[in-house]
Design a protein that fits this description.
208 residues; mainly alpha; Helix Hairpins; minor pseudopilin epsh fold; three-stranded antiparallel β-sheet; 8 helices; 10% strand; binds manganese (III) ion
């Protein structure tokens, strides 16, 4: 069984940057839905006991096309939101820390430039999708965006996301309507870079 992560904060804890109704709907409806649908499809495909990362990086092994698509969409939705909801918090570090901060400075010309590039990817994604900061096991950073609930794990090339910005309209429409740029700007105000540094360490130490 795949289990939705528990939130470490209340739905209203990220106000005024992310509103309580968006948080509640996103977690209790969208994320819970992906989780349930993943469990249903993974049970039928007999992959319910696999690690989610292994499952997402080996989708081609699922022979039934309908189940493969269901697991890609809902497994992506499950994993992506487990990451999303843990990388935001009401009182986290608002700037990169530790080895990740150094890597961002060395490889991506610093935090300002990272923010700019990620924002560009988030706003440039047509329709629904995600913008990602990822790393490989050597600590090399990558910026990318994907459509739908796809993510960098699905490329099966050893690159793992450590931060994802959800740009589906359900992530911002209740508060920001069509203004995705306002949402992305506010989202940076609730990112917890301590958690993302921990994600980075887990990948380079092979613990994820
Ligand atoms: Mn979402």
């Amino acid at each position: 069984m795949f289990k939705q992560i528990e939130l470490a904060y209340d739905f209203n804890a990220l106000e005024p940057h992310v509103d309580a109704l968006t948080m509640e709907t996103h977690y209790l409806k969208h994320h819970a839905g992906y989780t349930k649908n993943l469990n249903d499809a993974a049970t039928k495909a007999m992959v319910i006991d696999l690690d989610i990362k292994v499952l997402l990086s080996s989708l081609a092994k699922i022979e039934d096309e309908g189940l493969r698509t269901a697991i890609r969409n809902n497994g992506g939705g499950y994993y992506n939101h487990n990451l999303y909801f843990t990388t935001i918090s009401p009182n986290g570090k608002r700037e990169p820390v530790g080895d990740l901060a150094k890597a961002i400075n060395d490889q991506l010309s610093g935090f300002g430039s990272l923010k700019e590039e990620l924002t560009k990817l988030a706003l440039g994604r047509f329709g629904s999708g995600w913008a990602w900061l990822s790393t490989d096991k050597q600590g090399k950073l990558y910026l990318s965006s994907t459509a739908n609930q796809d993510n960098p794990l699905m490329d099966a090339n050893g690159i793992e996301p450590i931060l994802g910005i959800d740009v589906w309209e359900h992530a911002y429409y209740l508060k920001h309507k069509n203004l995705r740029g306002n949402y992305v700007k506010e989202f940076f105000e609730v990112i917890d870079w301590q958690t993302i540094e921990e994600n980075y360490q887990k990948v380079i130490k092979g613990e994820r």
